[in-house]
């Protein structure tokens, strides 16, 4: 008897990617096969994104494509919160579930494509780290669901609920399994990483027979003992983050922080209802850099938020010049259905939003270019993500670069027969442009 096949389409952020990995792992555990195309699938699961309108449209288009190509579709993910919108456009979907609704998805799969009765998970082994959609050498480690903040431009709490932290023993066991499987970098993700454990009141748990609190610093400290790269994402600059900088300075975890500042104008931050916006962030950044000179900070910003004046925007540009952030992304404000920011007065015209975006990126490009020029002559350790097909070049990343969102280190004139994806390389930086570095190989590192 042939095993039933399920097609899978995964959209959205790394947190959604982890949800997809969990569902795929359960499917494989129960004996389902994952189809490589629509034609070979008995049904298709589409994991959607609903964060901004462009993502909503991409998700609706993906559902439509799956229905046209296959006809039997289960929808899950953040957009699943708005079942009415999905069914208005695609009334023939079999089932709609919300974000992180793993059990609901599996029940729907069982309903329409029963699992093979002869499957034995002890014989048909699924790897301990589960099914992953990332390359073998790095993986996302999701430590919590939901968020306690109520930022006016965001609907994540309505889709994923309030903060629910995973037990720290479970998080660390997963990280340990990932390392054993060959993962060399874990990227810690959540909606609010530095709030980890707040909802559990930092409940005591056990890992490797030792007591440990479900707490941000304790998690960072334990992960730092695994001997792999640990990269922190979505970290709000709460005061207790200062202690994690000490771990970075000591080389325990990567000196890299992804902090979503979003703006610098106190008025705009208040309209956004951003947490921790009263902090003197420039002073914090200076103190962190004094403690850990190698620290790299990336962030994202929104321009054209309702009520943002030219004075507010200029304040943001001035802040950016002072902050000298290493990696920065920028978005023009986009109304999200259900977000309270939609009801704010003084929406910014689209053409002004675009002008501000271009001015913002011009300033940050100058900062990025100057910072990368300072890297020339440095010796760095990089992790190989890919090998160019037509050229003797390895596409790698340093500790300063997260996959998909930051720059690359292009290691030139290599012997590709001696290097593979996932290798550590020691390189010397020889050149730089606005976002990427270029390097020559010194040696392939064994660890």
Automatic annotation (TrEMBL):
Show the Pfam families listed in the entry: Radical_SAM, TRAM_2, UPF0004
Q: Give the InterPro entries listed for this entry.
A: Chorismate_mutase_AroH (IPR008243), Elp3/MiaA/NifB-like_rSAM (IPR006638), Methylthiotransferase (IPR005839), Methylthiotransferase_CS (IPR020612), Methylthiotransferase_N (IPR013848), Methylthiotransferase_N_sf (IPR038135), NA-bd_OB-fold (IPR012340), Ribosomal_uS12_MeSTrfase_RimO (IPR005840)
**Which residues are recorded as binding [4Fe-4S] cluster 2?**
147, 151, 154
Q: Which GO terms describe its cellular component?
A: cytosol; ribosome
Q: Which UniProt keywords apply?
A: 4Fe-4S, Amino-acid biosynthesis, Aromatic amino acid biosynthesis, Cytoplasm, Iron, Iron-sulfur, Isomerase, Metal-binding, Ribonucleoprotein, Ribosomal protein, S-adenosyl-L-methionine, Transferase
- Can you state which reaction this protein catalyses? chorismate = prephenate; L-aspartate(89)-[ribosomal protein uS12]-hydrogen + (sulfur carrier)-SH + AH2 + 2 S-adenosyl-L-methionine = 3-methylsulfanyl-L-aspartate(89)-[ribosomal protein uS12]-hydrogen + (sulfur carrier)-H + 5'-deoxyadenosine + L-methionine + A + S-adenosyl-L-homocysteine + 2 H(+)
What does the record list as GO biological process?
Answer: amino acid biosynthetic process; aromatic amino acid family biosynthetic process; tRNA modification
Point out the coiled-coil segments of this chain: none
Q: Does the keyword Mitochondrion apply?
A: no
Q: How is the cofactor bound?
A: Binds 2 [4Fe-4S] clusters. One cluster is coordinated with 3 cysteines and an exchangeable S-adenosyl-L-methionine.
Top-level taxon of origin: Bacteria
What region holds the MTTase N-terminal domain? 4-114
Sequence ranges assigned to domain Radical SAM core in this UniProt record: 133-370
The main place the protein resides is cytoplasm
Q: What class of enzyme is it?
A: transferase
TRAM domain span: 373-443
Q: Which GO terms describe its molecular function?
A: 4 iron, 4 sulfur cluster binding; aspartic acid methylthiotransferase activity; chorismate mutase activity; metal ion binding; protein methylthiotransferase activity
The places in or outside the cell where this protein is found are: Cytoplasm
* Record: residues binding [4Fe-4S] cluster 1: 13, 49, 78
The EC number(s) attached to this protein equal: 2.8.4.4
SMART domains documented for this protein: Elp3
Task: Sum up the protein's function in the record's words.
Answer: Catalyzes the methylthiolation of an aspartic acid residue of ribosomal protein uS12.
Q: Which family does it belong to?
A: Belongs to the methylthiotransferase family. RimO subfamily.
Name the UniProt record assigns to this protein: Ribosomal protein uS12 methylthiotransferase RimO
Organism this protein belongs to: Acinetobacter larvae
Report the gene name.
Answer: rimO
């Amino acid at each position: 008897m042939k095993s039933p096949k399920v097609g899978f389409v995964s959209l959205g952020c790394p947190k959604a990617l982890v949800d997809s990995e969990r569902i795929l792992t359960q499917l494989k555990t129960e004996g389902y096969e994952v189809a490589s195309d629509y034609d070979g699938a008995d049904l298709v699961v589409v994991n959607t994104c609903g964060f901004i309108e462009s993502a909503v449209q991409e998700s609706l288009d993906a559902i439509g494509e799956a229905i046209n190509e296959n006809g039997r579709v289960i929808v899950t993910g953040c957009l699943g919160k708005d079942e009415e919108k999905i069914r208005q456009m695609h009334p023939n979907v079999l089932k709609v579930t919300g974000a992180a609704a793993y059990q609901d998805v599996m029940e729907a799969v069982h309903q329409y494509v029963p699992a093979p009765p002869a499957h034995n998970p002890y014989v048909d082994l699924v790897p301990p780290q589960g099914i992953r959609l990332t390359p073998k050498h790095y993986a996302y480690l999701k430590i919590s669901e939901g968020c306690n903040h109520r930022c006016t431009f965001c609907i994540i709490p309505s889709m994923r609920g309030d903060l629910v932290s995973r037990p720290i023993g479970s998080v660390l066991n997963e990280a340990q399994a990932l390392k054993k499987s060959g993962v060399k970098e874990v990227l810690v993700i959540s909606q609010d990483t530095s709030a980890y454990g707040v909802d559990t009141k930092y409940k005591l748990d056990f890992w490797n027979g030792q007591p440990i609190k479900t707490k941000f610093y304790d998690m960072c400290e334990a992960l730092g003992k695994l001997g792999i790269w640990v990269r922190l994402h979505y970290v709000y600059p709460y005061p207790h983050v200062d202690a994690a900088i000490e771990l970075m300075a000591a080389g325990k975890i990567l000196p890299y922080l992804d902090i979503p500042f979003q703006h610098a104008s106190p008025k705009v931050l208040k309209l956004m209802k951003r947490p921790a916006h009263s902090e003197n962030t420039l002073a914090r950044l200076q103190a962190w850099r004094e403690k850990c000179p190698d620290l790299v900070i990336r962030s994202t910003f929104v321009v054209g938020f309702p009520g943002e004046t030219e004075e507010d925007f200029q304040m943001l540009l001035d802040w950016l010049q002072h902050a000298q952030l290493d990696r920065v992304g920028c978005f023009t404000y986009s109304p999200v259905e259900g977000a309270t920011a939609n009801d704010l007065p003084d929406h910014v015209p689209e053409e002004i939003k675009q002008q501000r975006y271009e001015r913002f990126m011009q300033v940050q490009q100058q900062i990025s270019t100057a910072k990368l020029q300072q890297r020339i002559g440095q010796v760095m350790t990089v992790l190989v993500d890919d090998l160019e097909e037509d050229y003797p070049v390895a596409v790698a990343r340093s500790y300063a670069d997260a996959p998909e969102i930051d720059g690359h280190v292009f290691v030139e004139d290599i012997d590709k027969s001696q290097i593979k994806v996932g290798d550590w390389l020691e390189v010397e930086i020889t050149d730089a442009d606005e976002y990427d570095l270029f390097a020559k190989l010194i040696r392939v590192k064994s660890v």
